[in-house]
Amino acid sequence: MRYDLTGRTLLITGAARGIGAQLARAAVARGAQVALVGLEAELLKQLSTELDAHWQECDVTDQTALEAAVASTVERFGGIDVVVANAGIANLGTVAVGPIDALVRTVEVNLCGAIRTVSAALPHVTAARGHVLIVSSAAAFAAMPGMAAYCASKAGVEQFANVLRLETRQRGVTVGTAHPIWIDTDLVRDIRDDLASFRSTLRRLPWPLSTVVPVEQCVDALLRGIERRKRKVYVPRSLAVVQALRPVVLSGLSDALITRFGGHRMVDQMEDEVRQLGRSFGRTSVEG
Predict the structure, then answer these.
(1) Element (H or E) spanning 193, and its range?
(2) Which of 77, 107, 186, 196 has the least CB density, counted as fewest CB within 10 Å?
């Protein structure tokens, strides 16, 4: 049965740009009320004016700030039906050249931020017998040099959601994870612009791992997932096959193929590029 979004309240983190902002627009177009949570206050304010939405500046690694954002949302709308833990970042470079703080910050935002977001909003979602959607990634079941912290955090997000689903099912709460491939957002464009090694690798990846998906297509899939209270959303859908073949994708054979097709040269090039950049995140990243 379709979960009608008309009159529902969605709280969305990472809502200032990209997937979060576009999801807010699409949800409002379907009759929902939205609360926008993120770090870029000016962008959030502009979007809230456009959508007549609630907004609050908030770092998802700050539990006090998250709880305040949830409380203000409940005060404005009377409750929360759906929480979308979407906030995410990706540090640049390998473990060898990436500052430890950047690696840890990626895990803190992507994984700990999702855990904190869900924890803060769950009592209200439970009262509404609503839905939790946590944005993971194709990186949860594939590996690529330069993405150690990102892949680890997104795999952790998936397992967190898998357990949460079992814990909340008897209370009428459904839990889903979204697994997008490369989405045409500022985050991906920043990496593509900054690193020639990434552009070269992307061209060599097999389909569907080489696919760059328009953000609108991704958001359509996420909304369908919410409306159908699905446990898994793949963007594109062909990623379901990749996850089913996860033992092969993460096998020694896969490691050998990546090395054979220039993985070691790509690592050297990437490390040189990141050293020359002199920063650990993309140009538009606010690191949370």
Answers:
(1) helix 186-194
(2) 196
